[in-house]
Amino acid sequence: MVDIESLSEYENFVTNLPFIKPFKGCCSSPLVETVYVEPLAGRNPFEVVRTCVVQCPECGTMYVSDWE
Predict the structure, then answer these.
(1) Per-residue pLDDT for 64 more than 60?
(2) Is 17 inside any structural domain?
(3) pLDDT of residue 45
(4) DSSP states along the chain
(5) Residue 37 to residues 24, 26, 60: CA-CA distances in angstroms?
(6) What does the pLDDT look like over 20-56, one tens digit per residue?
(7) Which residue from 44, 54, 55, 66 has the fewest beta carbons nearer than 10 Å?
(8) Is residue 1 part of a domain?
(9) Is residue 2 part of a domain?
(10) Which residues lie closer than 8 Å to 13 by C-beta, 6 or more apart?
């Protein structure tokens, strides 16, 4: 795993990850694991729509998802 501590590190990491869509194959499991949550970096949590990185436990594919 990558050590992500800042907003810029998070943004660089998720640049090439696909946004989560209906899964195919093993990624259809509803049990995806959240691996990273977008850092707030001093921003107001009520004004920022945060994302997170989730990972399929079967194949290891990572996706970007809305953080809810």
Answers:
(1) yes
(2) yes
(3) 86
(4) -----SHHHHHHHHTTSPBP-S--GGGG-S--EEEEE---TT--TTT---EEEEE-TTT--EEEEE--
(5) 23, 23, 17
(6) 765 555 566 667 888 999 999 889 988 988 989 998 8
(7) 44
(8) no
(9) no
(10) 2, 4, 36, 53
Count of CB atoms within 10 A of residue 14's CB? 19
**Gap between the Cα atoms of 50 and 28, Å rounded:** 23
Q: Per the structure block, which two tokens stand in for 18?
A: 């696909």
* Inter-CA distances, 52 with 12, 22, Å: 13, 16
Place of tokens 């907003």: 7
Assigned domain for 25 exists? yes
For residues 58 and 25, what is the distance between their CA atoms, to the nearest angstrom? 10
How many domains does the chain divide into? 1
